[in-house]
Amino acid sequence: MNKSLNDCAIAGAFQNAAAPFAAMAFSLFYQSSTLGLKIASSGDQAADGMFSFAFKTPHTAPVNCVVTGWGDCDHAEMATENMIQAVCGLMSVHGRSSGQIQPLGLPYVSTVTAALALQGGIAAALGQLRGVALSHSHVSMSAAALLSASQYIADATVATPAENLPPVAANHFTSPPFVSADGVVFELETLHADPWLRFWMPLGISAALAGKGWTAFLLRYAKAAAPIPDELVSVLAKLTYLQISELCADSGMSICRVRAIAERVDDEQFKSEWLKGPWTFDFAASCQDMPLKPASDSLPLSGLTVIESCRRIQGPLAGHLLALLGADVIRIEPPGGDPLRGMPPVAQGCSVRFDALNRFKTVREIDIKSSAGQEEITELARHADVFLHNWAPGKAAQLNLDYSNLIRVNPALVYAYAAGWATDGGAHVQSPAMPGTDFMVQAYSGVAQKISQACGTQGGTLFTILDVLGGVIAAQGITAALLNRQLSRAGARVTSSLLSAAAVLCSDDFQNQHRFFDIATAAKSLLNQVFETKQGKIAIDCYDNGAVQRLIDALGLATHPEQENFQQRLSEILQSKTAAEWIGILLQADVPAAIVVENLNNLHSDSRLQPHLELGSYTKVTSPWSFQ
Length: 628
Fold this sequence. Notes:
alpha/beta, Rossmann fold, formyl-coa transferase, domain 3
């Protein structure tokens, strides 16, 4: 099994992380293990307000990596997973489809933070080898959360309010997933209107009504909500899952039932893939005379060139992260430009959602289907350091732009594929015969079911959590392959996927079931809810008995969690004051709590978030990393 960083090491207090960082520390441990790092877990108690670790290679000084809750290290107040979700708008975006602001029910911010923190350490070590004096890297949980929501923040803050969706719809509408007559919860998927229309016509749905449904269905990626007409939902509720599956087969639609996470953790193939990690690395032969480029400025990837041919979110976000680390990213677009540039809302002639992930890239318009275009891309790859794509399976070979094609002209190339399903492409791997899109992978992987259990909904989230995490994982794998290239003088192919990102997000389930690693997963919060107050909402996240008791004392409650009326009394007393009044009381009592941001327009008013927000024609999220 190829590991990219077998000669490198990481050291930190993984076993003794403070409770707010425990989930992040476990994910960091898991990701480090699957990259082949030697892990030294110190017995020291980690500091309450941060988590730190050292990233080491045989040929560099150690990189001291620090993870904090907030972007500004001067803000030392507590920051738990769900406080960050509340403050950074993730709860609001997630709540659009259900009509109820609530936590995701997953250690999502912790997982993204771990990946970014490890990537920061890897990048800083790579920078040292390329002549940049970097010994410290810092990332915060709030920066990771804002990065995750960057497209939604762009959409909400552009100066064209008519384009914006209300934070949470006042009148809740039905959103996917759907439920059949025999009680099966399932997702539908198609990327084209024709199969959608063919699917509904035999059910007596008019073209006009189906078209209305298509508009809502298509925009669920952009808006995290899909107001599907009730007539469409109702007609499916009268059919069995088998009948609906047959309609899908006839029309060209794809269908996937929402699978239980237990199915995944007990499946031998998935277990093997989880142990392997979210990347597959294939290394080229070592070439000791391989020319290596020095850095061109103070960022670790400066002077390196990335060729990116990607659509939608996962691949473009990976390219965006590499650009934030200093790489020169050349984005390949079709003649006339990517159609998504025109998707509303628009500022300064470009879709703000598109600009949020692509603003630092140079664009080359190339017809990749033509021989001339393929030759042009091959010539670009000859002098590049990374080639990144997220084309459909088999497309690279059809275009003569597969790894085997490009490695011939550039043996030092890091060839990266950000896939939907399988990460190694081997014949033994049975990938699902359906589009590898965010919501289908949520359903197939068990992520949707985990969210539904935590939130009381029927399925996952329309917040594109796997597209975002998949992009972060892809960029992390590329950075690891670049460090390996610098150390071993070998190019590589690195493949990651949305499905492998889902496995990272469910790492605690695999670990709790099989105990592969000598480390405990983070304990679940004892009380983790969003409450209405006299004005505004407040999120409370008590991760141990001490925090629960401090909450009881601060509120003057006469009941205890074991009593039947505890939740009722808690809700009643919290409605006696405003969220702003309660937050002062609770934080003074050392109770983890935060005011829930319901409108993403209000993010910039929080001084804790300002280091990672840049005001302009829309609010941009800046780099999650800082280096010294």
